Amino acid sequence: MTSSEIxxxxxxxxAQPSRAxxxxxxxxxxxxxAGYLALATQxxxxxxxxxxxxxxxxxxxxxxxxxxxxxxIILVHAITKPAPGREDVERIQAGGILRVVMxxxxxxxxxALWSLGSLILFGYxxxxxxxxAALLMASLMLVYGHRxxxxxxxxxxxxxxxxxxxxxxxxxxxx
Length: 175
Prior knowledge:
It is built from six helices and two strands, in the order H-H-H-H-E-E-H-H. It has 175 residues and is mainly α. A two-stranded antiparallel ribbon has the order 1-2.
């Protein structure tokens, strides 16, 4: 083989255009957005806001409406236009599907743990969120290839502490 033949055989091949994939993505985005909007309208309020003031539902509803509009635009674009080229998108790599499945499982477990709220062990009330968030961060970092234990511990502790301080201590939003 000559060097030009080797270069041609190693040429980068992007993913193939797929109109069906674009339409499915638009439908899934619309379904998730509509579900989010429905849940946002049901957020319980401790106090009703006075007329003209913003309550706890305002920003989630704004985000939900915006995401529904964007999802509709994506779906209409996918149906009416030809599929865009995907030369810049890599083909599925070995282990890629396994990583996606592992991410979904880890996210499901995080939500299940978080829904516990708090536990009473040996007479002490223990908040589950910081533990679940740290486990989420550490496990996702391990799934996606991070292997240095010191930075894994420092990063997960720092991000979890930051989220806890901002939401629980500063904004007084119970997690």
